[in-house]
Specification:
The protein is mainly alpha-helical and about 150 residues long. The protein has a domain of about 90 residues. It is built from six helices and two strands, in the order H-H-H-H-H-E-E-H. Strand 1 and strand 2 form a beta hairpin. The chain is rod-shaped. The mean pLDDT is about 85.
Length: about 150
């Protein structure tokens, strides 16, 4: 009996490669850049198709081809997923050290920003004002270093 090709292996491998390389496209949009759900979905489809293809290849070897190249495709797809996960979830989250950022306990320069009523509020005014309990005013500044 002639064995037929196992299209699930090829489709699964294509999905895995698309999941890896499509991040170049998806990084343009904040909804898919902040958390790469579209890429993970492509990897999941690839894993499902590869698993079905491997089950066919090893479960019915007289009917379907693909024991060797199916295993290679699965390992390459798993490697692509591991490399993608390392790059996106670890390496891209490593921010460089900021030499000019204020340190804990450093005195902040005076500045003025609009408050919720759109009136200018200066840092010096907030610090010099007295709290209701008679203690001098205090200000907590939180610096968020964005990633853009």
């Amino acid at each position: 009996m002639k064995r037929s090709w196992n299209p699930s292996l090829w489709i699964g491998f294509v999905f895995a490669i698309l999941g890896f390389f499509s991040y170049i496209f998806f990084v343009q949009f904040p909804i898919t850049r902040d958390f790469p759900w579209a890429n993970l979905l492509l990897f999941a489809f690839g894993a499902i198709f590869l698993a079905v293809g491997l089950k066919r290849a090893f479960g019915k070897p007289d009917t379907y081809r693909g024991k060797i190249f199916g295993s290679i495709f699965a390992l390459l797809g798993l490697g692509a997923f591991a490399f993608f996960s390392f790059i996106v979830f670890y390496e891209l989250k490593q921010l460089p050290e900021s030499k000019g950022a204020p340190r804990v306990g450093a005195k902040a320069p005076d500045f003025s920003l609009p408050n919720e009523d759109n009136e200018p509020t200066a840092l010096a005014n907030l610090i010099s004002s007295k709290a209701p309990n008679g203690k001098p005013g205090a200000v907590l500044l939180i610096f968020y270093r964005g990633f853009w």
